[in-house]
Design a protein that fits this description.
The protein has 23 helices and no strands. The protein is an all-alpha fold. It folds into two domains: 182 residues, Glycosyltransferase, CATH 1.50.10.130; 313 residues, Farnesyl Diphosphate Synthase (Orthogonal Bundle). The longest helix is centred in the middle third of the chain and has 31 residues. Pfam families: Terpene_synth, Terpene_synth_C. InterPro entries: Isoprenoid_synthase_dom_sf, Terpene_cyclase-like_1_C, Terpene_cyclase_plant_C1, Terpene_synth_N, Terpene_synth_N_sf, Terpene_synthase-like, Terpene_synthase_metal-bd, Terpenoid_cyclase/PrenylTrfase. Its cofactor is Mg(2+).
């Protein structure tokens, strides 16, 4: 890796610290995909020198936490025991109070604590400590640059942030604060790379909007949300790299189709009508049953059939088409769960939280989206074994689904109840436990936190699938942090306007 410090400095504490900082900057600036092998090799070497680095007197909290986070993110085995050196000698349950004024150390600790897995109490305590003191620092006279960085991190920690949203922020941040990273060549390269990729993504967006225009959504689906740009942004959050061009196009079309389908179930059809639609979709081939559907539902069914036919033809140009069959089966599951929720709504039934989660796990659409994310990635990596894994309720996909559904319910349940809608997780918890809304939201936020720990556990080596596939699921979970950051950014699309403009409209 051309920008990493010389190997002769590698085994010194200072050299390792510089290397960690540089790898961190390369990843934050969004050019890490160019150096995946070099970063992997560097971090494995650093991992091997861990004990010497962590026990050295020159290794401060900032670098210790950075070491932990970078290696944990890479899937390498590290434990948080290293943080015991920063605990209070008189009270081993607390971190040293002297650390409360260590601005960079607190921020690094805060970021590291988000990569916790279950049972790592020391990281749970570290997160509380760092969050509390970073908020306190914001009220003092810290520099404007550091204040900006802390506000961003408190809102979107690194581990939970969409990669390109992170990139856009850090390009701006490093441009304003040259003292943070003294590497003008790296910064210039990141800017050039971002602008080059932006032009590629603009061309893809043009292709997608032309396809969407051909569906005549405003006239044929008058009840549906017109959100194709937001759909592309969602998928761009899952994979932005040039090598995933075909996968991005395919998955954007699928999520756009699913958006129409979701609105068809929620906002248009009666129970009897969507029951027929569900039956038709279980067959997924043109049949006389189509004639019993309202015109808008016939249009919906035709979009589904045409899209999967189109994807099958595209895949046949370069290899086998088995991936389409897996995606279709997930669609059938989704529609059955949609129908179950419509049945609850029709009967006014409020299920228990566990009963709700059984269907909501599917209607979050993450199982079908995670499956569909593999479809365009090529049979050489997205094998039948990979599809068997993703379609059999693996812990990581379940966790991502929990994050999506519960975060959605927390921010939108009041709006949903203003129109006739199935009970959300908030209402289910409130009724089951005779609890106020605040207690329900607090419980669900803890569930989301536990789901993130499930994801962190699944990302540790050996992973059940190649990292290239696991990252798609991870990035789906990350996308929720941005889309539901300040409300329901998909339904209230103005909430995403600034994100979308900064990524697709404005070069750096």
């Amino acid at each position: 890796m051309v920008m990493i410090v010389d190997d002769e400095d590698e085994e010194t504490v200072v050299g390792l610290g510089l290397k960690l900082q540089l790898i961190d900057a390369v990843q934050r600036l969004g050019v890490g995909y160019h150096y995946e092998i070099e970063i992997e090799e560097s971090l494995e070497k650093i991992h091997g020198l861990g004990e010497e680095f962590l026990t050295h007197e020159k290794t401060d909290l900032c670098h210790a936490a950075l070491w932990f986070r970078l290696l944990r993110q890479q899937g390498l085995h590290v434990t948080p025991d290293m943080f015991t050196k920063f605990m209070d000698n008189d009270d081993e349950e607390k971190l040293k109070e002297s650390l409360a004024s260590d601005e960079q150390g607190l921020l690094s600790l805060y970021e590291a604590a988000h990569v916790a897995v279950h049972g790592e109490d020391i990281l749970d305590k570290a997160l509380v400590f760092a969050t509390k003191n970073l908020n306190s620092i914001l009220t003092t006279k810290c520099t404007p640059q550091f204040q900006k960085q802390v506000k961003f991190s408190l809102s979107l920690p690194l581990w939970k942030c969409v990669p390109r949203t992170l990139t856009r922020h850090y390009i701006d941040f490093y441009s304003e604060d040259h003292g943070f990273i003294n590497n003008e060549k790296l910064l210039r390269f990141a800017k050039l790379d971002f602008n080059k990729l932006q032009k590629c993504h603009q061309r893809e967006l043009r292709e997608i909007t032309e396809w969407w225009g051909g569906l005549q959504v405003p006239t044929k689906f008058r009840y549906a949300r017109d959100r194709v740009v937001e759909c592309y942004y969602w998928i761009y959050a899952v994979y932005f790299e040039p090598r995933y061009h075909s996968a991005r196009i395919i998955l954007t079309k699928i999520i756009s189709m699913l958006s129409l389908l979701d609105d068809t179930y929620d906002n248009f059809g009666t129970y009897d009508e969507v029951e027929i639609l569900t039956t038709v979709i279980q067959r997924l081939d043109p049949s006389p049953l189509e004639s019993s559907l309202p015109n808008e539902m016939k249009n919906m069914y035709r979009v589904i059939i045409d899209l999967y036919d189109e994807i099958g033809i595209e895949l046949s140009k370069s290899g086998p088409t088995f991936a389409v069959d897996y995606a279709k089966e997930e669609l059938k599951k989704l529609c059955r769960s949609y129908l179950a929720e419509i049945r609850w709504r029709t009967k006014g039934h409020v299920p228990t939280l566990e009963e709700y989660k059984k269907e909501a796990y599917v209607t979050s659409a993450f199982p079908i989206l995670c499956t569909s994310a593999f479809v365009g990635m090529g049979a050489e990596i997205a094998t039948t074994e990979a599809f068997d894994w993703v379609t059999n309720e693996p812990k990581m996909v379940k966790a991502a689904s929990v994050i999506c559904r519960l975060q959605n319910d927390i921010v939108s349940h009041k709006f949903e109840q203003n129109r006739k809608h199935a009970a959300s997780a908030v209402e289910c918890y409130m009724k089951e436990h005779d609890a106020p809304e605040e207690a329900a939201v607090e419980f669900l936020r803890k569930e989301i936190s536990e789901a993130w720990k499930d994801i962190a556990e699944e990302c540790r080596r050996p992973t059940p699938l190649p990292v290239a596939l696991m990252d798609r699921v991870l990035n789906f979970a990350r996308s929720i942090s941005v889309i539901y950051e300040n409300g329901d950014g998909y339904t209230d699309s103005h909430l995403l306007k600034a994100h979308i403009a900064s990524l697709f409209a404005h070069p750096v």
